């Protein structure tokens, strides 16, 4: 495969041998890829300076296997500036993509959703809304889309005055007092369907829903970004 000037972002990078870096990238037309950037830690300082998170890049690479080799890189525009909590939210989004997205599957709509999420985190708006909407879009593009418009067993459309619980592999069910499942109101579900109208209660309930579903599809694998978030909040509250 020889690819020239493909728009993409770096999701994660780690040192490889003495002078190289192994990149997880997300590209517009080729999806998630592993790309080896040879020698950037020793010789190509100007190139290495571009290989940063949240920096839109034009990437060129070549290779014949799952591991491609970086040939050239240039900036496609200014980097998204994520600070403080927004930076941790960006790490969380990137980690989800690395752990959940298969290699080499094109998802152009998800690429757009990723850019919108970065823009939302940069703008200083409500990070909770930005994260919940991206999680929803990510699950949908993975084929794990939430079926929350109607009850799984009866097909009855949700009602805002009712309460529900969600099971990742079966769908939405009517909640009853005393159940151990996390309750989510019909109002909160409608906010998520409409992608607007969120309030403090609905965001809390939707967060619980998303956490449960994502935990299921991660098969219990821990998220390092979530640990970092908890550590920061623990530090700031003491």
Describe the structure.
By secondary structure, this protein is of the alpha+beta class. The protein folds into two domains: 2-75, OB fold (Dihydrolipoamide Acetyltransferase, E2P) (Beta Barrel); 85-236, Up-down Bundle (de novo design (two linked rop proteins)), CATH 1.20.1440.120. It has seven helices and eight strands. The strands form two sheets. Strands 1-2-3-5-4 form a five-stranded mixed beta barrel. The protein has a three-stranded antiparallel beta sheet with strand order 7-6-8. Strand 2 (20-27) and strand 3 (31-37) form a beta hairpin. The protein starts with a strand and ends with a helix.
Topology:
Blueprint (H helix, E strand, L loop, with lengths): L1 E15 L3 E8 L3 E7 L7 H6 L6 E6 L4 E9 L9 H16 L7 H16 L3 H15 L21 E5 L3 E4 L9 E2 H9 L5 H18 L6 H13 L2
Parallel strand pairs: 3-5
Antiparallel strand pairs: 1-2, 1-4, 2-3, 4-5, 6-7, 6-8
Number of domains: 2
As a percent range, the share of strand residues is: 15-25%
Would you list the SSEs in sequence order as H and E?
EEEHEEHHHEEEHHH
Helix content: 25-40%
Number of strands: 8
User: Which value, in Å, is the CA radius of gyration?
Assistant: 20 Å
Chain-averaged pLDDT:
90
End-to-end span in angstroms?
52 Å
* Largest sheet features: 5 strands, mixed, barrel
Q: Which topology of the largest domain does CATH recognise?
A: de novo design (two linked rop proteins)
CATH architecture of the largest domain: Up-down Bundle
Structural category is: alpha+beta
Number of helical stretches of at least 4 residues: 7
